[in-house]
Please model this.
Amino acid sequence: MKGDRSEQIYFKLCSDHLSVEAIPKTRMKVNFDKLRDKPPREYELLMWTPHFAVLRSEGGQEITLRQDGRMIVRKSGSENIARQAAAEMIGVVLRNFRA
Model:
């Protein structure tokens, strides 16, 4: 897959077996002020705090994004879809919201 960033992320299935935690392999910091002021158009910003944001992808996945780049992906049809959503989000963060 072109632009696949899944190799840059560790994945863990959460204990509820419905969510996937995605942890970047390299340290990063997300610019939450920029994210709040100009969210990516492919995502709906559902909630924002100084410590985390919740976004909804066009596919319906809800992604909780922390300042250190960690994510929880919920409401995915499968683990593979959740992994793909996390990889897409890390690409968006790296291109637009890295502090």
Observations:
- Strands lie at 9-13, 20-24, 43-48, 52-57, 62-66, 71-74.
- The mean pLDDT is 88.
- Residues 6-97 form a domain with the TATA-Binding Protein fold (CATH 3.30.310.10).
- The CA atoms of residues 64 and 99 lie 18 Å apart.
